[in-house]
Amino acid sequence: MRRLLIAAALAAAVSAPALAQAPAPALPPLRCGVDGTFAPHAFPSLQGGVQGFQIDLFREVARRMGRELQIDSASFSGLIPALNAGRYDFLCAPTTVTAERAQNLLFTEGYIWTELQFGIRRGTAPIRSEEDLRGKTISVNKGTPYEVWVRNNAERLNLTLMAFDTQPDAVQAVIQGRAYANLSGNTVVRYSASRAPQFVADFVLPGTRFHWGTPLRLDSGALRNQIEDVLVCMKRDGTVARLSERWFGNRPGPDQAEMIEFPGYGPPDMPGYDPTPQNPTCG
Question: Could you tell me if 225 and 100 lie in one domain?
């Protein structure tokens, strides 16, 4: 009997360190959705899948979190409903932070500014004010703040809305003369103009600077803060600025969102903002 007890004790002593050293279970992949037709933020790669600023940005975020990243490309108009249905953990798509959206989604702080800009067909007279849009047809990507702006101003300016599932289709409508101008984010309009000689980046709507942030569900506060901590570290070490310069062609200055660490978690002065001071551990 005594021999059996000694053997059992030895076995326990040998197995205990092995159990203590067992690796922690791997965390599941992070799932994100993106509009894969919104160049240069996300667009098809010749090697398959999608490429762009958003893809590089969030692959690096996931890597620093020690997680795999699964990216699903879909029409932007369906991304937020899919997020709220639990299909995604967050959206990789550049998403304009508005008060209305922030009532139903949780956002990280902005990592880039966006402004509403019109693109027109080469040879068209430049747009100098909103009055030059009166009576015109404006093309947009469906489900975006650009569509909202046209709808909200349609009666005042007698605008006709032409909404498309993809940004390239909205640009083609202008080049083909079916729409007078395309309304989108400034980075996207400038990129489209650099790739399509017949398309010109034109009038920027005054007072339309917004955060482009990362949306999550309202119950994802811990994950929101983890992602934002990583984004802050990437701002500090210049990663966000380098990616911005690579994809948009210009090195962001100190007043650009790629360089600014906003206080607390989330965009200040928006629903869902958490004033708790950030204190990320940047390796």
Answer: yes
pLDDT tens readout for residues 22-61: 566 688 999 999 999 999 999 999 888 999 999 999 999 9
The per-residue pLDDT for range 253-264, each reduced to its tens digit, is 999 999 999 999
**In a domain? residue 93:** yes
Single-letter residue type at 82:
A
Residues 77 and 193 in one domain: no
Q: Is 249 left (phi over 0), alpha (psi -120 to 50) or beta?
A: left
Q: Where are the beta strands (DSSP E) in the chain?
A: 30-34, 43-44, 50-51, 69-73, 90-91, 95-96, 106-107, 112-114, 116-121, 137-141, 160-164, 181-185, 199-204, 210-213, 215-216
Global confidence as pTM: 0.82
Q: In the 8-state DSSP scheme, what is residue 264?
A: S
90 and 137 belong to one structural domain:
no
DSSP line for 30-79: EEEEE-TTBTTTBEE-TTSSEESHHHHHHHHHHHHHT--EEEEE--GGGH
